[in-house]
């Protein structure tokens, strides 16, 4: 016969029963909470995985200079071929090839012995004419006295007067001959007409030089002088830019920047010439700009890249150039809303430059898709791409997840 448990044993087992029940309840609750949390994380992960990774940027408002770019050629403002104007021999060459010269510097001396002799001869003839004229004037005075006393006729007096007039004319002729001879003497000294740089010198002391009657068959010049500072750059612009250019020049000289091809230095100059006609073949107009060139870094014949900004678009809306898309209905951009959904916004392109575009139809501060637009459709959900790991998106906790590829 079994013994009946006493009331003391039942009281001792009760705390153990309660403890076991609490443990079971906590385990069930924890399992349910963990399962629910896992489902939420999975849904969030699926939502992030479905977002298209893109790079976005904010449109901004700023003043944009409209730049015109062209290829230019460096040309000298002045260049001249110096040739002999008399037949003679070179006595001395005073310059070197490639030397810088100033206006008036002596470049060549020719044999001037014949010209010096001619000057002395002409001067002597002038002195003789003056002596003859003085004698004729004295004779004329005596003839006048005799005529007043009725000792000679009027014809004799006229003869004396005619002799004086003839000698006076002869003196003027001989004085002009002296000047002509001095001019010929000056041709034996060839000087620089302006400051510049010398070219090749094909003659030396003793070379025979003579004036050329026909330029097509003439001998090479003694030297060519080219002005280096300042220097000019010639280029062409489209004819549709002419009104803007003219308006900018009416407000003062228009600045221009030139960069040598393959170089980093930029040169600052001013437009000083606009041609008077448009080239009907190319639809362009020729323009020249003048640049200071004291250090001779620009050289005639060089090719340079020219840039000028004749006008400015004030308060323009600017977006990255790659954000601009083209469709059947024209140009548009993808804008991103607060819910990370994209919408197609039609825009008008006003100006395009490398790196950015000026558009109309979009407010400043709008968030636009700059990269990744090829995978989007209106209504697509996007997420900012992690540039350090292409093809991934950034989550709220900063963790990167792989983006889903568009089919």
Provide a quick synopsis of the model.
By secondary structure, the chain is α+β, with helices and mostly antiparallel strands. It has helices at 7-50, 113-148, 154-186, 242-250, and strands spanning 52-58, 60-76, 79-82, 88-93, 100-101, 106-110, 189-191, 196-198, 208-209, 223-226, 231-238, 255-260, 266-279, 284-291, 303-320, 325-327, 330-336, 342-346, 348-353, 356-360, 367-371, 382-384, 392-394, 400-402.
Molecular structure report:
The chain is α+β, with helices and mostly antiparallel strands and 407 residues long. Helix content is 30%, strand content 36%. The protein has four helices and 24 strands. A hairpin with a 2-residue loop joins strand 16 (325-327) and strand 17. The longest helix has 44 residues, at 7-50.
Mean pLDDT: 84
Poorly predicted segments = 1-11, 26-35, 396-407
- The first-to-last residue Cα distance is 81 Å
Q: Helical element count?
A: 4
Using the CA coordinates, give the radius of gyration: 49 Å
Furnish the topology, listing elements before pairings.
Blueprint: H1 7-50, E1 52-58, E2 60-76, E3 79-82, E4 88-93, E5 100-101, E6 106-110, H2 113-148, H3 154-186, E7 189-191, E8 196-198, E9 208-209, E10 223-226, E11 231-238, H4 242-250, E12 255-260, E13 266-279, E14 284-291, E15 303-320, E16 325-327, E17 330-336, E18 342-346, E19 348-353, E20 356-360, E21 367-371, E22 382-384, E23 392-394, E24 400-402
Parallel strand pairs: 1-22
Antiparallel strand pairs: 1-21, 2-11, 2-15, 3-10, 4-6, 4-9, 5-8, 6-7, 8-10, 11-14, 12-13, 12-15, 13-14, 15-20, 16-17, 17-18, 19-20, 23-24
Helix pairs in contact: 2-3
